[in-house]
Amino acid sequence: MAYYLPYLQALPTGIHTWGQSDRLALAINFYDYGFYFFTPRTSTMDSIGGITGVEFPIQAYLAALGGLVFGRGSINTVLRLLDAAVVVLGFYYLFRVVYERTGHFVAGLVPGAFLLASPFFAFYAGSVMPDAFSLSLSFVGYYYWLRFFDERRFADLRWAVLLLALAGLVKTTTALHFGAVVGITLLWAYLEPALLLPKQRWQLLGWVGLGGGLIVAFFFHNQHLNEIYQSGQFLATTTPIQDPEQLHNVLQSVSRDWVAEYATPTHYRILVVCAVLLLVFLRPNLRRHLPLTLLLLASVAVAYIFVQLMGGQLGVHDYYLICSLVPPVLLLLLLALLNLGRYTGWGRYATSLGLGVLVVFLAVGGYKRLHRRMSDDYPPFSPYYTHLWMRGGAEELRRAGVPPTSGILIIDQGPNTGLVYFDRRGLAWNPQGPSAPTVDNFLDRMAADSLDYAVMSPSQYAQLAPQHAAFAAAFDFVGRVPAVVLRRRDRGRPW
C-alpha cells in the first residue's frame, strides 16, 4: 500500500488515461445518477443517457458507495484504495501458497515483489482499472483450489469456483482461467472417482453452472445494453490479427513500446532460471505439485487462445496481458519457489539470503519505476499525453460559476478524460479534416446535445486565431487558465 500513498488522490494520469477515465466515470455516475448496477453509465453523451455495457463494474459500484460515506470527492481515492487492497490480498495468498508448503518465509515474499517490480502491473495495480483487481482475485481462487487437492475439503473447492467466477465477471479474460480450473478438476474427478463424493459432484456442477452462467448472462446483458443505448465505449468483441502485415505491426509495437513495460531485464532473467528449474524438477513437480503443474500448462494454453482472439489489440494496450500472460508467468515462478524452498540446513540459509536480496532489489526498483511512470516525463509515452492541461479544470469551472449540471463540449480524443477532469457531463470532440473547425461547427455540435460550454486548451484555441473574432461574437469567455472556456450565447440555435 505504501507504493501508492502519493497517488491515491491523483486523477487518471500516465499511459492509457483514456481507459482509466472511462472506469472512474462509471463510479462517479453511479453516485450522481442512482446506484443502478445493471445500467451503468459514464459521463459522455456519445450513447443514449451515457448508458453503456461494461464488464461487471463491482469496483466502480463499491467506490460510489464509498462516496456516500466519505463524500463525492473521495470516490477516486476509494477506487484506487480498493484496487490496491485487493492486490495486496492477492499477494498475501500467493505468500500462503509458498509458505504453507515450504515454511520458507522469504520465498513467500518473492511473488508479490516480482509483480510490484513489473512496470505495467505496478502501475495498473494502484489505478482504477479492473485487470489487476481481477487477477488478484484469481490468486485467492488458486490458493483454495490447491488447498482442496492438499486437504480434500469440498468447501475449499467451492470457494475457488466462486472466487474465480467473480474474477471472470470483473474481467472476461479471467473467465478463461476459470474454465481451465473447472476443466482440470472435472477431468481429475473422472480419472480419480474418490476425489469427490457423488453428492459433491452434483454440487460442483451446480456451482460451476452458477458461476459460468453468470459470466455468460452478464456478457449478453452488456451486448444488449450496447445495442439498445447505442454504445461502443468498452470493447465487447474479439479482434484477432487479420493478416501478416498486421502481425508485423503488432510485433513491432510490442517490441518497441511494451517489452520494457511488461518486465525489467531482471524479470526476464528470473523467468529463464524458472524455466530451467521447471525442466530440472519436472518429475518431482509431477509427483508433488501435479495440480499446479497442470494449471501452468492450462494457463499457457489460455494465453495462446487469448492472443489468437485479441492479438490485434496487443500493440496498443499493454494491460491486456495482465489477465492473460501474468498467470502462467506467476505459476512458473511459484513452482520454482516451491522447489527451492524445500532445501534445509545450509541450503535454506543460502536461499533465504539470495531471495531476500532479490526481494529488496525488486521492491526498491519497482517503487522507483512506478514513480517514473506516474510522472509527467516518461518518454517515449509522455509526449503523447493529452490530459496535462486539464488539471485544475473542475476548480476553474467552479470559480467561473459554471453550474454542475451544465453540459460541456471538450476538445479531446478520450470520451471521458476531459469530462472527468472538468467534472461535468458532455461530449469529447476530436474534429478531423484538412481545415480547422469553424465557429458554426462548434455551435452545431453543441446544439445537437444542448451543451452550454466549449472547453479547449489555450494552445488549441491559439490554432483557431483566424476565427477569434467570430468566436467573440458567438461566445462569452468565462475562463482562460488552465483551459479556454466559452459559453455560447444563442441557446435557441436549431440543429
TrEMBL record:
The keyword Transport does not apply. It holds the Pfam family PMT_2. InterPro entries: RgtA/B/C-like. Keywords: Membrane, Transmembrane, Transmembrane helix. Coiled coil: none annotated. Residues 57-190 form the Glycosyltransferase RgtA/B/C/D-like domain. The chain crosses the membrane at residues 77-95, 107-126, 132-149, 161-190, 202-220, 266-283, 289-307, 319-340, 346-367. This is Glycosyltransferase RgtA/B/C/D-like domain-containing protein.
